Amino acid sequence: MKALMMCLPLATLLGGSAIAQTTTMKTLPYPVTKKVDTVNTYFGTTVPDPYRWLEDDRAEDTKAWVQAENKVTHAYLDQIPYRDAIRKRLEVLWNYEKFGAPQKQGEWTYFSRNSGLQSQSVIYRQKEGQEPEVFLDPNQFSKDGTTSLQGLDFTKDGSLAAYQISEGGSDWRKVIILKASDKSVVGDTLLDVKFSGIAWKGNDGFYYSSYDKPKAGSQLSGMTQYHKLYYHKLGTSQSTDKLIFGGEQTPRRYIGAYLTEDERYLVITAANSTTGNELYIQDLSQPNSTIVNVVANFDNDHIVVDNIGSKLYIYTNLYAPNHRVVTVDAANPGVTHWKDLIAQTKNALTVSTGGQKIFAEYLQDATSLVLQYNMDGKLEHTVALPGVGTAAGFGAKKEEKELYYTFTSYVYPSTIFKYDIASGKSTVYKKPNVQFDPSLYESKQVFYKSKDGTKVPMIITYKKGIVLNGHNPTMLYAYGGFGVSLTPAFSTSNIVLLEHGGIYAVPNLRGGGEYGETWHRAGIKMKKQNVFDDFIAAAEYLIEHKYTSKDYLAISGGSNGGLLIGATMTQRPDLCKVAFPAVGVMDMLRYNKFTAGAGWAYDYGTAEDSEQMFNYLYHYSPYHALKPADYPATMVTTADHDDRVVPAHSFKFAARLQEDQQGQAPVLIRIETNAGHGAGQSTAQVINQQADKWAFMFYNMGVAW
To answer: Which residues are catalytic?
Structure first.
């Protein structure tokens, strides 16, 4: 471990800033953030909301506050002596060719490639025996690289393609249709599409989903209440698109649609929250056929993964919290007629199909086990993976004889493998040339006990031979929500930590999906505290076993993980040295008032549900739980175009945290401009963010880089 160094006084770092300084802050010239008298009353309890005005992202005083906060943040970061060296090291590490797994569409094989530091990856295509050519270059979409490709869908014959773009990171998309042969644009660009795939019906048109744009207030933060499924016929105006499902007759918050590969069945999923969905099908081979309901409640998750004629293959967690695959005839598809094809096991299951096979991808303590079955449910192969990690991408068309998948772990850079479906053999297809020697590092899975005795897994990654003396800079990262599973994945950014004797630790908290729906439901609503307890116990394990100590521990999480960090900070401000709450849900009393936030109620509950639910949320809501205390060095991060978790969450939390900070550690908010919730950011934006993160962490730990 390199020698420690003392930090310079913060006043020296910032020099004579012209930003007004509050009377309570002695070290950093935070902006004076005005307070208002806004209050809400819940079940007789009056709740002040002094920073409510920051919710208006269009207001001039909000914009001025953002500029003033960014000025303080960048002045602080600019003075860290090795910040630029970290950024340059990240540029070197990032500068290698990156490929996406290929897919065949018509006469062409398509794949993505980034030469190294390109803002966005480029879509190439290639015919057998010919050189690749550029099909789509998102780097040409905008001058600053912040307009990104967010979806590319081909007709079955590969002759037409529809691609979606996001501008400035927004969830609102535009859809552009191309003729694949000459890349010419077909028809008009579709506008205001959100949370949607593209489901082609032959070459005539496609299905897509969207919301009505908010008519009042901000289009970035306004509520998007009900999804609608449309059919767009090529060559016609979007204004004449036919409403297929949703709207006043069947109001649903999320509607998805896709066609079976033979294009016989339109499959519709409809939900009011992020967990559980209704299932519908429509037999498109029958003229004027009706939409048939298969599952009529929102209690469980169901999707149609394949069909052979009228035989449907359905992936579901109905009566099977770890999921199973069932079959049923589409003529009589009700739940009572379902028959198990791949029964539930002790491991959580996801599935995909390719080459007329079913690939069952199991999680064994958050790592991959992949089995190949035929369409009758007979086990054919166990896919031999190169190690313990995460395998994904086992999908292909029915006629394909081979497919491509990726494998990665915390110490295994993401590598593409070609898989022969008949023999079950894998060969390396593309291996990245990243500056990282896996033999120098190791990942170890441990199990620790949470507050209530629950056993929780955690994977700890570090350089071999590290001395466990409590002085190792450690990043503890987690999520813990919405049934999302955190599985091992390589991060170029983490090399900066690992090669300097640091430790990266990821616990699989309740609320996630690592052990199926039971694990998920153990961390929702009035069990949400389990998630925070699991995370705190992970930190205490690392400290107890001398991996690190309070003075060398940083905690990090984004979105729902940002909520996790905010709650941990307010409940245990003494736990760590540095905190990174990113794009977090920080106001648990009002999260459901913005964009699609109401759809998160299955996991969180709402303040309007009951007095008991209100009190529970009010107790842990990071924005409301803040009180005068000695908080860790904190860098809140958000973006001005985040229309999923609106930046007001982070704005309000940062303002109150600056007010309540009683210690000398900095409390900063870094607000990315022309960016959203994370997807589609340019390479330069990502590298700059990561450099700022590591510089802030090392500096506040007093560690020389």
So the answer is: 559, 677
